[in-house]
Write a structure and sequence with these properties.
alpha/beta, about 15% strand
């Protein structure tokens, strides 16, 4: 395997998953075996590397919920679900950076119009709730914004 992020230079061992309280994962090479870097005092960069590889060249359907201009998160002067390049704020910047590092693509999209009525019935007029509702039903892969529970 490739040794990016130096995971193959770090100490690890096979563990009994029923008797190991440290972070461990099933082996992708050997059935019924689990490995652990944590047991040896190391970070598991292998899983990080494999997860990063799994994102490469994928396209995700993403809803952007706009905060008001005074809040930090994601903001667009055209409002929530705008499919343009005017998104600013730390949440929008984070997702752009993650897409670059992970080699994946973002398709900015809005939930289907008919879903908006269902969302209003349950949650009111919140675009944040609409975004999360659409993601929970599989119409979006994830939402970008600054979300809080009041």
């Amino acid at each position: 395997p490739e040794c990016d992020k130096s995971f193959c230079k770090r100490s690890w061992c096979y563990v009994d998953p029923d008797n190991c309280s440290r972070l461990h994962n099933p082996s992708s090479l050997f059935k019924d075996r689990h490995y652990s870097y944590a047991t040896c005092g190391e970070l598991d960069q292998f899983t990080y590397t494999e997860r990063l590889k799994s994102l490469k060249d994928r396209t995700f359907q993403v809803g952007y919920a706009s905060n008001s201009g005074g809040w930090k998160g994601a903001y667009n002067p055209a409002g929530s679900f705008a499919a343009n390049k005017q998104w600013t704020g730390p949440a929008a910047d984070f997702v752009r950076g993650a897409a670059l590092e992970g080699g994946f693509y973002i398709n900015m999209t809005s939930p289907p119009d008919w879903l908006r009525n269902n969302s209003k019935e349950f949650f009111g007029n919140s675009n944040f709730d609409l975004c999360v509702y659409a993601a929970s039903l599989g119409y979006l892969d994830f939402c970008v914004g600054s979300f809080s529970i009041n």
